[in-house]
Amino acid sequence: MDINVTPRSGVMTAPAMRPNPSTVRDITLAEHYRSVRRFTESLCEPLAPDDFVIQSMTDASPIKWHLAHTTWFFETFVLARSIPGYRPFHSLFNFLFNSYYDAAGPRWPRPQRGLLSRPTVTEIFQYRHAIDERVDSLIAARAGDDAAAILLLGLHHEQQHQELMITDLKHGWSANPLHPVYRDALPDTGAPPPMRWLDFPEALVWIGHEGRDFAFDNEAPRHRAFAARFSIASRLATNAEYLAFIADGGYARPELWLSDGWAARNARGWDAPLYWHRDGSKWSVFTMAGLRPLNPAEPVCHVSYYEADAFARWAGARLPTEVEWETAAAGNAIAGHFIESGRFHPAAAAAPDDRGPLHQLYGDVWQWTASPYLAYPGYRPPPGALGEYNGKFMCNQMVLRGASCATPRSHARRTYRNFFPPDARWQFSGIRLARDPD
Amino acid sequence: MDINVTPRSGVMTAPAMRPNPSTVRDITLAEHYRSVRRFTESLCEPLAPDDFVIQSMTDASPIKWHLAHTTWFFETFVLARSIPGYRPFHSLFNFLFNSYYDAAGPRWPRPQRGLLSRPTVTEIFQYRHAIDERVDSLIAARAGDDAAAILLLGLHHEQQHQELMITDLKHGWSANPLHPVYRDALPDTGAPPPMRWLDFPEALVWIGHEGRDFAFDNEAPRHRAFAARFSIASRLATNAEYLAFIADGGYARPELWLSDGWAARNARGWDAPLYWHRDGSKWSVFTMAGLRPLNPAEPVCHVSYYEADAFARWAGARLPTEVEWETAAAGNAIAGHFIESGRFHPAAAAAPDDRGPLHQLYGDVWQWTASPYLAYPGYRPPPGALGEYNGKFMCNQMVLRGASCATPRSHARRTYRNFFPPDARWQFSGIRLARDPD
Amino acid sequence: MDINVTPRSGVMTAPAMRPNPSTVRDITLAEHYRSVRRFTESLCEPLAPDDFVIQSMTDASPIKWHLAHTTWFFETFVLARSIPGYRPFHSLFNFLFNSYYDAAGPRWPRPQRGLLSRPTVTEIFQYRHAIDERVDSLIAARAGDDAAAILLLGLHHEQQHQELMITDLKHGWSANPLHPVYRDALPDTGAPPPMRWLDFPEALVWIGHEGRDFAFDNEAPRHRAFAARFSIASRLATNAEYLAFIADGGYARPELWLSDGWAARNARGWDAPLYWHRDGSKWSVFTMAGLRPLNPAEPVCHVSYYEADAFARWAGARLPTEVEWETAAAGNAIAGHFIESGRFHPAAAAAPDDRGPLHQLYGDVWQWTASPYLAYPGYRPPPGALGEYNGKFMCNQMVLRGASCATPRSHARRTYRNFFPPDARWQFSGIRLARDPD
Amino acid sequence: MDINVTPRSGVMTAPAMRPNPSTVRDITLAEHYRSVRRFTESLCEPLAPDDFVIQSMTDASPIKWHLAHTTWFFETFVLARSIPGYRPFHSLFNFLFNSYYDAAGPRWPRPQRGLLSRPTVTEIFQYRHAIDERVDSLIAARAGDDAAAILLLGLHHEQQHQELMITDLKHGWSANPLHPVYRDALPDTGAPPPMRWLDFPEALVWIGHEGRDFAFDNEAPRHRAFAARFSIASRLATNAEYLAFIADGGYARPELWLSDGWAARNARGWDAPLYWHRDGSKWSVFTMAGLRPLNPAEPVCHVSYYEADAFARWAGARLPTEVEWETAAAGNAIAGHFIESGRFHPAAAAAPDDRGPLHQLYGDVWQWTASPYLAYPGYRPPPGALGEYNGKFMCNQMVLRGASCATPRSHARRTYRNFFPPDARWQFSGIRLARDPD
After folding, report:
1. For an engineered disulfide with D415, which of B240, C276, D2, D209 has Cβ 3.0 to 4.6 Å away?
2. Do D177 and A96 touch (CB under 8 A)?
3. Cα–Cα distance between B378 and A436 in angstroms, integer?
4. Rounded to two decimals, what is the model's pTM?
5. How far is A288 from chain D (nearest CA, A)?
6. What is the pLDDT of residues A92-113, one digit of tens each?
7. Who among D100, D259, D377 is closest to C100 (CB)?
């Protein structure tokens, strides 16, 4: 496998991605691999052994499972496909660490990942390092373009799990009355920029990814869409604005909510974003620095689509569509606060390098859109198990755009389509408003 | 209230509809009202007293509840709004027969509608006739355009419930080992027309309802959408075609299914459409004429969105979008088999007057589209309780187009947007394929 | 079958009963049969057709199902066993109306009895009358002692269902906001007798049924048991006494409750007996005469074992054991208010003919004992399906003694063992206290 | 606190126990305390850090929770009561490690014990050792008889948790496809003794604990009971005998089962004891030495009451009552295989010192009795939180007698009443038959 990867045939040879030789030319794939893998492990440094094991809900996974699953991905889709007669590290790990790939065989039930005391955390780190050595050897042996392409996919996959490790850990700790602390409290970044409405004219626009940089299959094909005139907010909605929604009875007025949202609010007793606690008139919020006073200047975070939608309706606005968000984001740099900074918390003020007509596009919170997660016109998932990576989830989920403070910097891009069910709240998800011009 | 209704201000005065004076000019509104109400009651003629009471699942309602709820709609939104100091027929009926209007106050829980032995069926018919008299008087007194508009909405609402009465009754009877019979078996309509692919060019098209004929609020505003080239099937998918899907392992191959669909299939043990029974190699199907041998020539019916989607993927095709369906249906007459014929069963051959490039658009089965149910750009629900009619359901549901054999003829139209969750199977829902041209 | 029944071999030939020829000598079995069957139907006179159909919870059954099931019992265990080549009334009725007899074959699921709109109520009455004719003929033909014995069992079985029809109807109506009325309100019977403690000395006592009168198999064998000294209350606990328990925080003090009882209380939000409603400081109770003010003088009714146990602990007492109750009841006449009187409500004062050291033993409410429902030493259920009548339920249930206002007079006796799970509240179940002497 | 404990006032001063000065005279209480506490920790030696954290079902608890809860017991009921102004080790540990004592305040929900990654295992060992030091100091300070009595109760409590740690760990590991191993495989102990029926005559017997040795409150008061003639099996039922039950369709014949048992069997798909696996005609069983071939000679283990009851009915026998078991066990030494031997597995042959008319009474498996868990006549739980230790569970559970291979030797005695719900299978529970003599 050559470090200067030049994939020959796009989607067919590299199922769920399209690597760009010009990007990888200047760094070695081996270095990139080591860097991503090491960063995953560095995220575990503040953890006690106990923290690797627990699973706080079905949607979340134990940290040790993330560590093993991302490794399994490389073993299954890179090593086993590239090395003739490949002998798996352990005969049961395919069963234990396959996430949702039906084509890869049966698997341990997701809700029971937290019951696996064995293999131990120690054994899982041994698994990681053994696979790392084999991947190193494979890269050194210049295996082939397809393997390199899937390897790159695996690194983006691992970056997705880096964010999930933080969100799952936060959820697991949030219920613990001891309020565990991952890092020190952050400095206050001051007031947010003033909110302005940016107007965009009616247009037939091009949407989706094109080119040789990496992108997931669901970002393609690039295609045209008609967008009527719209306005979009120059920054994210803040905690102060969300507090006004609460104070105005936002959680008690069904006319503001979708029917399914109102049912979810009632069934689960929602009266504030996830992790918020009220003590009389004082609000606090559970963060990676423990329980902290709520900062009104920060972007509101950990809201479901239903809450984002109700807030927008209350504000006389709506959520942007995917097409609107991607159109509006054109010309903005990929800049903000990312996981590498260790923040894991949305910032009030934009990052210094976040320059452009729109602020806080990336690096604070994912932004719910009004768009259900659907295939782009002409989309075909790649054949085989990797075709399950994105395609089979295109139902009952909503798209989020941008990137959060728990997203790796190199993972963020304008065409990225994140997606979660409308009741999900444990991701770093927030709100950017849009509206129809008068 | 004049029989020649001329609404003055469209959406604002007639919240969820836009009546067309040219339609109602030639018949009196009073006659229209009586006709729809009588037809509802005529649908009950084959029933035993017991059949009015049962509720076979949360999604379905007892027949007696439908009879009362449609009456409550007129009482609440027409009589109580038009008659100063209006005195309700019964103080508790608003609580018992409000379906889902939060703005109309608290309500009896939907899953417990089948526990209401009181009011009795006899009392509910008394309620109907008392309200009918009051509505008659109101019409005779020429109450006003708004009342007339809502009255017309109420009639379309009652027509929706005519179809639901049939689907709910069918569901309730389907589990009964005595296989109750509603009507005689139908004559065979012969072979379906051959299936052809009809091609449509790329276009910026206009979608949605415009004009003075009645339409629900969710069919507007009329707006532009970009449609790439597409092909659509000239007729519905048949039982024979669906049997080939089953024979090819369609229900055992996860790669054909959406993830949520595969989970639903497993959780509920689906291995055929609802109401199908296999006895060795012989298939039968529960119909309104009892249990009958499956006719391979008929359109497949009672499939969920998940099954329709899996079938389409298996067939190398996909489901059409709303935009594609509505574009393709242009120029076809609203013709087919409707509830007035007493069929309640999709027919193999098209109805004699079903002429146009596409067959079986209306009057056999609703056709699942690939489009989630969303607001059209610029959509605003009307204020007040009637704003809940459609708007709050715009999440987690898929649009169906066309009309079924249980739809009233005057209720079918090209821009009609029916919608159900992707796992719903008890409606007369079937499949029309689409695909991207080569 | 002779009307002067003389069973030859007791348990072996008449599995679950032991008829007493001296009892049946003076009336014809045919008359007894007709009388019980007619009384069942007379209980339905105040009902609307709708009332026969509903099933308000899994533990309850629709009235129409009771009417059919009791008929099925005679058809299955008397007719089909006595008549060679017997042809069932309907091939599916064994499936539909078998309650819980595994040996009698598969059956319609209990929680779905309320979904059976067919057979109709009219058809079920036809079924009853057809079976009645066949039983009449069988009796006239003097079929045999075994058949007569099972016929007598069937009549006691139908009497059990007479009480269940009332309790199930009451439960179904109780949730209906229209508060249906079965009969007129009852006259007040005045104040209860004063409560005294009656003391019984330590003794080795004989317990259980013996002799030729009818009894269920679970009342035998008669056997010895050791009872230490005990005291028992001369009358039932009253609503006034129970109100004092509530006022003293009875439902908020876990130390008064069994662990499972406290969990049930919390899970279901119990804060008063079933059917009680509080409006400020005023209590009302749903009765067969609709919603009525609570009468403090009446025996408390519709409490679970858990509540009875907690009340007793709060009162510094306990519930009596079966052995104690049966010992104490010796010498008291079987007198009280029974279903034939149409009361269906416990009375404050004892019935005029309720003379003995203990009042209100029969005819007001069943009395929870501290005894789990177990087999008496040496108990063997009869072979075959009728062995399932009682034996298989001897786990997880508590015994109630006495008889209620919904029990037929000829069905009450001192050795009768009623049994329900400790969380059941919809039966006419109340409290008689006991205690250890100082 | 003096090491020669002489409690002055029995139940009132030492709520749930009655220590025997003659037993504790020769060893110091401090040594006894250290010994029990050390043994608990020694049981953890084979565990990986991950094994302390998981909770495999609501009935089980994480090992770390057991370690903390047993410590909390001493802190709450000994230290905090004996030391004026006692300052808790951590303000939240009462909330986190209270098991079920309502009087001790609110508590962390039992089903979520497996979500507590904090406090860590390391911190919990620190907690143990800190409390151990304080208890040591308290003993050295000769605090008082009541404290000594509760301390002794706490040690028996911790011994109960030693057995639970093994059963919970086994359950947690049993689902793991890696089949973790706690200890080496055991030597085969050969064939069981032949089974004989031992007959006992009718008698008025004394039952329950008396004297100064430790016993739980539920073993008293000693009282009389009448026992008819009975026979009891000289040894436990074996795997071979249970295999014959299975081969004879034991799990497919409802007539052998209690109604609730049959429902449990169907709902959970039981077709063999817990931890048994069938591969064709070969059976294996998960043990603390991993997955092992089933030994037909060993006592059957990990059966529910329902299975024990069905097996007994199939065998033409029944389960013994508590009274029968305790009567039959008189004169047998407390001997067998206990947790100190590290077996954790029932043995085929009796232990060398297990001499007496009955074999395998102690040290192999607990033996289900036919007796529901009830208060003995005259039983009064002690006041306060310790009154919740046993009393509030006296409903819906069945008594088991004897002791298992996971019971500490000094914890076993003839009057011991273990109790579990009839569907529990994860304890070391087996079968000793009884029957009525011919």
Report:
1. D209
2. yes
3. 7
4. 0.94
5. 15
6. 999 999 999 999 999 999 999 9
7. D259
